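Hi again,

Forgot to attach this to my earlier email, sorry! This is the prediction with pyridoxal-5'-phosphate bound. I've pasted everything inline since the attachment limit keeps bouncing my files.
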Amino acid sequence: MRPPSVDALARSLVDTGLPHPLLVAAARKAIAEAASDHVSDHHIVDRARQHAFVSKRAMLQPVINATGVLLHTNLGRAPLATTTEAVYTNLELDLVSGERGSRHAHAASLLAQLCGAEDAIVVNNCAGAVMLVLAALANGRGAAVSRGELVEIGGGFRVPEVMMQSGAHLVEVGTTNRTRLGDFTTALNNPTHNIALALKVHQSNYRIVGFTQQVSVAEMASLEVPVVADIGSGLIDAACPWLENGPPIWLEGEPAARQCLDAGAALVTFSGDKLFGGPQAGIIAGQAHLVRQCAQHPLARALRPGGLVLGAVQQVALAYLNRNPQAIEFWRMACISPAHLQERAEAIANRANHTTAIRPTPTTAITGGGTLPGVEIPSFGLVLDGNHAAALRAHSPPVVAHVRDDCTWLDLRTVAPSQDEPLTQALRAMA
Ligand SMILES: *Cc1c(COP(=O)(O)O)cnc(C)c1O
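Structure tokens for the complex follow:
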């Protein structure tokens, strides 16, 4: 019997919505497998459909985050609304003078205002921000860091490795658990180190407890070199003036850009897609002459974001300045009351009308993304017996859930209300 033609097989998959060349690839793969495995025509069609399905699943697409992890690294950290219209922007045009402008004039100046900084610049991510600061201010010189802060943030961001790439020499001071201001002054007084700056790195994703001592930004500010604080997590202001009820308790102790600068940091660096709630970006804010040195370094060109990202950062910065947390999806989700989530959980459980019981249940959400380790946010969701993670992921749109103790847990804090209906359908489809 002759195998089906590649073209006929590809055309039989057109309902998948994939472009023809991808369907041809799926068809070829299935036919090649059939030749070696001796499978029937019927199975060739099935296999081709499976290959098409796999290539469709590999594409970037919206998912329902039912994990309760607000900044889930695998799900792109902070959720973000984007517009898709094709438009030109005044990215590098000064609309007042008609002269060439700077792409750092829009979002960055709003960020500076927000953090109480003289100036700011936006780059691709926080790793890039730290790298640029070190390259611009400490190339060929020493940068002093406490041994307790030589951290790995995850995804391979290791402070010592970033420093090496920047051309700055790492000068470790203190010990893993205790560092004193005197450790910094000793290093600064050693001319062979030729120290250009002192770096404070926030221990974003772990805690050192017990017999510990750290040097605060305020103490470090008495040193003769500029202090750079890599706060990473991107909290703009510890007072959270954009929230009607002030800072939630789970934020306690989290360093914030405005307070670090007030305490004497010359520069702060942070991520755009963590607690800031924006797109992937890195922000450098602080003293104007140091920000300028960063902006003028050749690496700034390699690390600069495009108009899409800068537009999104600007939109988030405006929402902060307007004190409108509803317009920042991270803060909207982070601040919903568990009682409200409970109502939604009960409505979904009723409508899903499932053969296996779906039980509304209290849950605990976390911020995630390497921020606030151990901090739990009371939340509400649904629990089902058994492991349904793969079935939920196979749904369209995919639903990502947690499996624990042979139960599947769905936390509603990270599910947008507009996703309740598709989530209900995913649960119904599992019956
Ligand atoms: C997350 C984090 C980074 C890395 O940020 P990216 O935006 O992912 O590059 C760097 N430093 C600290 C302290 C962080 O928490």
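DSSP finds 16 helices and 13 strands in the chain. Residues 125-127, 153, 157, 201-202, 204, 230, 232-233, 271, 282, 370 surround pyridoxal-5'-phosphate (CB under 6 Å).

That should be everything now.

G.
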